[in-house]
Amino acid sequence: MSAPAAAPRAAGAFLAACRREPVAHRPIWIMRQAGRYLPEYRALRAKVDFETLTRTADLAAEVTLQPLRRFELDAAILFSDIMTPLQGMGVDLAFEPGPVVRAPIRSDAQIDALPALVPERDVPFVLQAIRLVRANLPPGVPLIGFAGAPFTLLCYLVGGRPSKEFGAARAFLYAQPQAAQRLLTHLADAMAEYLTAQAAAGAQALMLFESWAGLLGPPQFERFALAAVRRTAARLRHTGVPLIYYVNQGAALMGAVRDLDVDVVGVDWRTGLAEVRQTLGAAKAVQGNLDPAALFAPPEELKRHVDAVLTQAGEAPGHIFNLGHGIWQETDPDAVARLVDYVHEHR
Ligand code: CP3
Prior knowledge:
By secondary structure, this protein is an alpha/beta fold. The protein is built from 16 helices and nine strands. The strands form two sheets. The protein has a seven-stranded parallel β-sheet. The longest helix has 25 residues, at about 175-200. Coproporphyrinogen III binds near residues 45, 77, 79, 211 and 326.
């Protein structure tokens, strides 16, 4: 039987690349691909606030699917937020639009009071959104589930609001290291439960977002952030789905990540992928790492910036094209269309 002339993305390239298998075309998806750069997302947001979008299964599923209707993306990512499961655990927070925690966690008593996460009870709408997305995705396009990595969640829980430095969270690691470890262990276990439930509901890959790793030097990264991710990753192995660890500003941390049991490491644009691949070794796939700002280049120049990423990534199997961080809300959707098409032309 001859293979049907399928759309490029119908070939399962994303999951194959996660497993470092050869692919017919370079898979691409975009961090925060469901979001404010899309007019159809803004139209929905004009009627419904962000929190309601994340907590209503059919709306979250609809927003997840929006970018897939426009672009030949190789994967969908669940529309949700890293703080959504913490809300489910009873943490009082608001999105303004970044997460603001009403009573930042600073004491042992507050850590003791955090309940375990029971996903089917606490965030049923997330699992239902996954089931709805799976039922409505174009054939062959997998769905990525995700969670915040424990240290990145700690940054918001302890810091209380978005910040560039997260001074309170970093000071907490030094002032109350045992409390920090207890909080991280609790979060590591909760996120393992959460991601296990996402896989059971139909997520075909799982991603941990370590957005604030770059705030830590290697010793603190290994002792706190990485130790917690190891715990989560160990508890996810039985799911059998690929695990992606995204490390923002992690150039100096790649040596430590080499021994982590994940399938894919996502990186920002500050380090060339050639160096990242050399440091991580052949046993890991890489994901990234075009600067989100590059989408503002004129079309012909954008191609050259894409070529530079592809050259850095090399031809060995195991590269998933992505931006180095979330797409900016000011981005022209037409630039995204050009990016996706151009990456797919690369053989
Ligand atoms: O990638 C996707 O398309 C899936 C959706 C997604 C969102 N947040 C939607 C969102 C994902 C994967 C996230 C993860 C997330 N949330 C991270 C990790 C990734 C990263 O950016 O480093 C972090 C740190 C958060 C916390 C958070 N939530 C912030 C800092 C903000 C403000 C962002 C901004 O650009 O203003 C949010 C709110 C948020 N999460 C929005 C979206 C689409 C904007 C909310 C709105 O519509 O008003």
